Amino acid sequence: MFKIVIITSSLFIFFVCFGVSVQAADLFFYSESNTIKTGKFFELDVLFNSPDDMINALEGELYFPQNLLSVIDIRENNSIINFWLEKPVVSANKIKFSGIIPGGYQGQGNLFKVIFRADNSGKGQIAASDVRILLNDGYGTDVAVSIEPFDIDISEETVSPEDILVVDISDQYPPEPFTPIITKISDIGGDNYLLIFATQDKSSGIDYYQIKEGYSPFIDATSPYILRNQSLDKKIIIKAVDKSGNIRQVSIAPVYLNHWYENFVFFAIIVAVAGLLIVGRIRWKK
Predict the structure, then answer these.
(1) Where are the bilayer-spanning segments (predicted)?
(2) Of 49, 46, 57, nearest to 26 (Cα)?
């Protein structure tokens, strides 16, 4: 049994899907060459194609020969996924990922890019497993998935400087603007308010997010985030930082005014009026 969040324009709907496979989608890989020299870096695009159907959610694991390759970086810039439930992160010889596409997506697109280094000579294969793709049909219907692995052949040759792929990591632009959402989702936070947020960076990719509630310091956070201040009476600041250190910062004004502040203003007005009446009466007696 598999639980996944399906997002419509303004409503979060949870479905428990039991895997009824229809239609077809492809998961495959692309690199300029599959013949590599030891010590060389190369980029591998993880691609997706659904020519006939709108897709709104997917998950899976990419695995690679750890004795031959090591992961240098993973980039989600230019990804068709704009809301990651689990961002691609390497663990041993696997990269696990899970995300959704609000509104759905049809056609071919890039999921993410992996930058590998060829460490040792030999032949191997990069492939994917446990891949699930769901239709944007309101039911989260499973799609039959075709997975095309990527064969690599690493030879131990002397690498000249011009043979090494130079990965341009220059990035002077902040992540894209985004609009955080405060909501309640019982399956995640019970009766607590959650903060939902996501953005993209088309150059170097998003590195991390931080959140500041009121006068508290910034802390690292991932979406969905259970707000510590459930009164919603303090300003919230969300900071998105890309892998080049550029920052996009957005804020949410207090949803509710602080009650003590309202009471303070009310009593201050009463005291001021009373003071004026007393002063006026004293002057009248004189």
Answers:
(1) 260-280
(2) 49
Structure-derived torsion over alpha carbons of residues 93, 95, 96, 100, reported in degrees to the nearest 10: -170
Same fold, 2-157 and 181-255: yes
pTM of the entire predicted model: 0.62
CATH topology of domain 2-157: Immunoglobulin-like (2.60.40)
Per-residue pLDDT reduced to its tens digit, 135-193:
988 888 899 999 999 999 999 866 455 555 555 556 788 888 988 988 887 777 788 99
Q: Tell me the C-alpha distance between 175 and 198, whole Å.
A: 10
181-255 maps to which CATH number?
2.60.40
Is residue 96 within 8 A of residue 88, CB to CB? The reply is yes
Q: How far apart are CA 61 and CA 111, in angstroms?
A: 12
Domain boundaries, the chain: 2-157, 181-255
- Could you tell me whether strands 142-147 and 22-30 are parallel, antiparallel, or unpaired per DSSP bridges? parallel
3-state secondary structure the chain: CEEEEEECCCCEEEEEECCCCEEEEEEEEECCCCEEECCCEEEEEEEEEEEEEEEEEEEEEEECCCCCEEEEEEECCCCCCCEEEEEEEEECCEEEEEEEEEEEEEEEEEEEEEEEEECCCEEEEEEEEEEEEEECCCCCCEEEEEECCEEEEEECCCCCHHHCCCCCCCCCCCCCCCCCEEECCHHHHCCCCEEECCCCCCCCCEEEEEEEECCCCCEEECCCEECCCCCCCCCEEEEEEECCCCEEEEEECCCCCCHHHHHHHHHHHHHHHHHHHHHHHHHHHC
